Amino acid sequence: MIERRTPTTLAAAFQRQAVLTVALCALGAILVVAVVSSASLGGLLLAILLGVLALLRAVLPVRAVGALAVRSRGLDVAVLLLLAISLAVLSSSPNL
Fold first, then answer.
1. Distance CA 32, CA 38 (A)
2. Which end of the chain is more exposed for a tag (fewer CB within 10 A), N or C?
């Protein structure tokens, strides 16, 4: 008899939300870098993460991005890119 995994297991949830899980792990690493090294470097890395998430939201189907799909594809990508550009500008500005 073939045993099937139920969709309510923790492993199934991580598989459905793989992009979000990787993004949260990357966010944790970025926070460690920001605390240990510098806040501006952490801000730039966070801006890069937001840019990558915008790219993933633009090219992957809704089923693959999971909870990252909140509104329409165009609006999600525009908001993520706006946040990424704003954060990159602010973190590279001197004396902020």
1. 10
2. N
